[in-house]
Design a protein that fits this description.
The complex is a heterodimer of chains A (498) and B (488). Chain A has 498 residues and is mainly alpha-helical. Chain A contains 21 helices and 2 strands. In chain A, strand 1 and strand 2 form a beta hairpin. In chain A, helix 1 packs antiparallel against helix 4 and helix 6 runs antiparallel to helix 7. Chain B has a two-stranded antiparallel ribbon with strand order 1-2. With 488 residues, chain B is mainly alpha-helical. The chains are: A mainly alpha (498), B mainly alpha (488).
């Protein structure tokens, strides 16, 4: 038994335990212990991964294990991690951990679906087999429907249905893409590494086939990564979802999209990636700019953050499509950074909404005096989001734009400059929002009686802020970890160009 | 004549034994309608269960012929027959409470015997090697079915459903028979094997094949031969609907695969029926999905869902009639696996529909509003089954859909697979409508809390185990692949 499988095993045990236990305290205990174990395991994995890499283990994936599953179809349960997956597992660990504390008062069924969702997420990041990966991907999608539909707010039924159908639509494309990759590479293996390195019976996928399957796979994952014009599920979904689900969804689930685009679409079909990158660069460029401008005119706190997510996740795909090491590393750091910041944002919005019962920025002002802790947290999240040095957003965006500008042709440079403009727009909507709701004089007398965060609420906020600051202050640690995974993939993609 | 040939047919023989035993028991002991006879005991279920195990255990790997090729048996036949047995068993479990009603007490014996006769007909169809044998099996499977559909004869809908079914069944049988005669006219034989060698594409043969396909399309309820489905499913007693939608449909689909594989793979004829199926599958899946969205009665809803599922099932025929390029019978394996999973999920959904109907008399989708508040376990099991039907992991339906699409993709039908995949999103939408009704929608008058009977619980347990385990346990598919390679 490979120890990576424990990432899947823990949620399974949690599901079983949740099913058996009774009483709110027992449920909380299960969730707290389980999510702490997941976080602990992710930290442990990071430590030993780094030390093993330092000791000279240079296989593309470490701790690999493979078990036959559907032998006639060459489907195996294969696990393994590289730097990118380790970083993503760490992110998922943090978000699930904090999400548990944010949803402290929810009922048993909620936690059941929540745990199933995290099972899918963890399973996705440890898989190196396309089938297993796709299976976990879908496992992570479907609990969203009930989580939003039952425990959400606003027009929750509409949003839940829209989100589920659009993401499942993406996975229909994806399934076609997976079949195409599998049979295009000779139908001998589903293992990503083997297909890329053409071992284990895999052959190179012919270019005409790549040109069909690459867009399918990229769009399939891109839907989850909020690729324009397939992003419309995101604002509605995030706005309607309960707090911890928004956190998990924007923080981790949207990263599945970028991760998949990089690891499956671009890694396995590099020639097509070169041929077609320009189309998707335009689309992601639109995501970045359009998302930022849309956020400027929203009045609902969650919508602002959701459009901001579209913009930032667009930046992830944008940087990945630049196909160089710096931009690639930046993209993965942006995933981490955006995951943490968005989670913090959604957590704080949830807490503020729980008190004011409105998310309309026109109805709130002067909250800084009333709930200083939440307000300060909000300011930090906002500053991180607009790229203040010292917080994670700066590191990520700096790396991305420096990397993107390394291309010498006009097309890439023009688009980099356009995407850069989103930094300014981000500052506009963040500062406008913060100024409006936190500063000034409180005009709503009902808000004067509100209280600040409780201890259980403060805890996840502090954890998230520490993580954001850690990435901002010690970026080389993270970029070293991420680089480890990005460099081989980018080299592989670049090698296909010549 | 070598009478030991009958021993080869031990599956049919033992089923016939069970039928006769039940028939005699009914005749001798069960005419006292006040006591309800021994049919309120689990005797039929136990007998059928024992037979299922008995037939499935010595899984004979042999491929043989009897009666000069009239009867052909492959290892996959045993698997399919066992699957159908399990389906019938669950039908019996579902029917138990309904049969215990006063108006049905006196007819209990007939229900079991007639159901098993249709099953026997399906057995003959599956193992036939000759069109006459095939047709006898088909009729044996169709005509008693009418009696089952109109079993609640005092209920207007049930009688109507029976009338609709028999008229169309006979029409399609006639069509099929005419098609068979045309095939005989062009090839000079009714043996599948000889047709397989002798067929040369001609307009006459094509006409014959088209009529044959139309007849089978009726049994499988593929668009455009589906018009009876919704009315019949709605009118028939719920247990019978479940039987129709799984056992009857599944056996017909498998038989179609076998007949096409034996008789119509050589020569240019394969291309012709592939084109036909290409459009039939697209029409079945798409139209049924669009109609399912608009249903308000759960049984009609399940009827359209079953039509679209039939479309997916028949996807296994594309490329399933020959060995795939890696030497496995990928299409056939995927189809039988799909059938197995579909059985668990659909029977599970019908078990919930049935027990709710028996306890509250409600069948509308709106009636299910708030079911989760009153009957959380049933609502949860229904959700599992619907998710499995929609193809959501980690439930078995995901695996079966993936594999059947994979098989069709490998056979070269990439566009078809893509269209089918897009359709899974529509199907997810309407399955989620039910989930939404149960979990999200509020209701003033939700279905009252009730305890389901023991028989339903056993059925639900079987189906849930299937939905949860058939996918994760990889050996099921791997084993089916082995069997498939010996059978094609």
């Amino acid at each position: 038994m490979n120890f990576l499988s424990i990432f899947v095993l823990i949620p399974l045990v949690m599901l079983l335990a949740l099913w058996l236990v009774k009483g709110q305290n027992a449920i909380r205990a299960v969730m707290a212990v389980g999510s702490t174990a997941l976080l602990g395991l992710a930290v442990y994995l990071t430590v030993i991964f780094l030390s093993d890499r330092a000791a000279g283990a240079d296989a593309p994936m470490l701790y690999t294990a493979s078990f036959d599953w559907f032998t006639p179809l060459h489907i195996k349960y294969s696990v393994g991690v590289d730097g990118i997956s380790v970083a993503m597992l760490l992110l998922s660990g943090v978000i699930v951990f904090t999400g548990t504390f944010v949803s402290w008062d929810m009922c048993k069924e909620y936690f059941l679906w929540f745990t199933l969702l995290s099972l899918g997420v963890f399973g996705f990041f440890i898989s190196v087999d396309m089938f297993t990966m796709f299976m976990f991907y879908e496992v992570a999608l479907i609990p969203m429907y009930l989580l939003i539909g039952v425990w959400g707010t606003g027009k929750k039924e509409y949003s839940a249905m829209k989100l589920t159908l659009m993401l499942m639509g993406g996975s229909a494309f994806l399934m076609c893409g997976i079949f195409g990759i599998f049979y295009g590479s000779g139908g001998q293996t589903m293992n990503i590494i083997e297909i890329a390195t053409q071992t284990g019976g895999a052959t190179a996928i012919a270019l005409p086939e790549q040109l069909v399957w690459f867009p399918m796979t990229f769009v399939g994952f891109g839907v989850l990564g909020a690729l324009f014009p397939f992003h419309t599920w995101s604002p509605d979904g995030h706005a309607s979802a309960p707090t911890a689900v928004s956190m998990l969804h924007a923080g981790v689930l949207m990263k599945l999209g970028g991760y998949g685009c990089f690891r499956i679409a671009m890694y396995l079909m590099p020639e097509a990636a070169h041929e077609l990158a320009w189309i998707f660069l335009i689309l992601t460029g639109i995501s970045v700019v359009y998302g930022a401008f849309s956020a400027c005119v929203q009045t609902d706190l969650k919508y602002i953050n959701a459009y901001s997510s579209v913009s930032h996740c667009g930046l992830v795909l944008f940087a990945l499509l630049m196909m160089n090491e710096t931009a690639g590393t930046g993209a993965i750091i942006q995933m981490l950074s955006h995951g943490l910041m968005t989670a913090l944002f959604f957590a704080l919005i949830g807490m503020i909404y729980g008190r004011t019962h409105t998310r309309d920025i026109r109805e709130m002002s002067g909250l800084m005096r009333i709930m200083p802790f939440l307000a300060v947290g909000y300011v930090i999240a906002g500053l991180g989001n607009l790229g203040l040095p010292g917080l994670s957003g700066f590191v990520a965006e700096m790396t991305i734009f420096v990397g993107s500008f390394q291309h010498e042709d006009t097309f890439h440079r023009v688009f980099t400059i356009l995407a850069c403009s989103s930094i300014v727009t981000t500052a506009v909507y963040i500062l406008r929002m913060i100024g409006k709701i936190l500063y000034g004089k409180c005009t709503n007398e009902h808000h004067l009686a509100l209280t600040d965060a409780t201890a259980v609420e403060r805890f996840p906020v502090i954890v998230l802020i520490c993580c954001i600051a850690a990435i901002g202050l010690a970026p080389f640690f993270v970029s070293g970890l991420v680089n480890d995974g990005v460099v081989p993939i980018v080299k592989h993609i670049l090698a296909a160009a010549v | 004549m070598d009478y030991s040939q009958f021993l080869y047919m031990h599956e049919e023989m033992s089923l016939l034994g069970v039928i006769l035993l039940l028939f005699v028991t009914d005749l001798l002991f069960c005419k006292d309608s006040k006591r309800g006879g021994i049919y309120n005991s689990p005797l039929p279920v136990i007998l059928l269960g024992v037979m299922t195990v008995f037939n499935a255990l010595p899984l004979s790997d042999v491929q043989f012929e009897a009666f000069g090729g009239m009867y052909q048996h492959t290892p996959m036949d045993t698997i399919v027959k066992t699957t159908l047995n399990v389906g019938t068993l669950i039908t019996f479990l579902l029917a138990h409470k309904w049969l215990a009603r006063p108006e049905n007490l006196v007819k209990q014996g007939e229900f079991y015997v007639v159901t098993l006769f249709t099953l026997l007909g399906m057995y003959f169809m599956i193992s036939s090697g000759h069109f006459l044998m095939f047709f006898i099996g088909l009729e044996l499977a169709s005509i008693p079915m009418v009696a089952l559909v109109s079993f609640d004869k005092y209920r207007y809908e049930s009688a109507e459903a029976g009338a609709k079914y028999i008229l169309l069944a006979l029409f399609s049988s006639a069509l099929l028979l005419y098609g068979v005669s045309l095939i005989y006219a062009t090839t000079g034989s009714l043996y599948f094997n000889q047709i397989g060698i002798a067929n040369t594409p001609s307009l006459l043969l094509l006409c014959g094949l088209a009529m044959f396909l139309a007849g089978m399309g009726f049994k499988i309820s593929l668009v455009p031969f589906h018009l009876w489905t919704a009315d019949t499913y709605e009118g028939a007693p719920t247990a019978v609907t479940a039987y129709l939608s799984v056992v009857s449909k599944g056996s017909a689909a498998f038989v179609l695969l076998v007949v096409l594989a034996k008789a119509f793979t050589i020569g240019g004829i394969k291309m012709d029926w592939e084109i036909a199926f290409f459009w039939i599958i697209i029409a079945s899946i798409t139209l049924a999905n669009l109609f399912a969205i608009r249903q308000s009665n759960l049984k009609r809803f399940m009827a359209y869902s079953a039509i679209s599922q039939a479309g997916y099932l028949v996807l296994g025929i594309m490329g399933g009639t020959e060995l795939a390029n890696d030497g496995t019978a990928q299409g056939m394996t995927a189809m039988v696996y799909y059938l197995l999973v579909y059985l668990a999920a659909n029977m599970g959904a019908f078990a919930v529909i049935n027990v709710v109907e028996q306890n509250s008399g409600k069948l509308g989708i709106k009636d299910y509003n708030g079911l989760y508040q009153t009957n959380p376990r049933l609502a949860f099991l229904m959700t599992l089954c619907l998710f499995s039907l929609a193809g959501i992991p980690p439930f078995a339906g995901f695996f079966s859909k993936f594999f059947i699409f994979m098989a069709a993709f490998n056979a070269g039908f990439k566009v078809l697979v893509f269209i089918a995949l897009v359709n899974t999103i529509i199907s997810l939408y309407y399955y989620l409508l039910i989930v939404k009704a149960m979990y999200i929608s509020e209701s003033d008058k939700p279905i009252a809390t009730f305890r389901s009977d023991g028989y339903t619980r056993v059925a639900l347990a079987l189906c849930t185990a299937g939905v949860l385990l058939l996918g994760i346990a990889g050996w099921v598919y791997n084993y089916l692949t082995e069997i498939g390679m010996q059978s094609l």
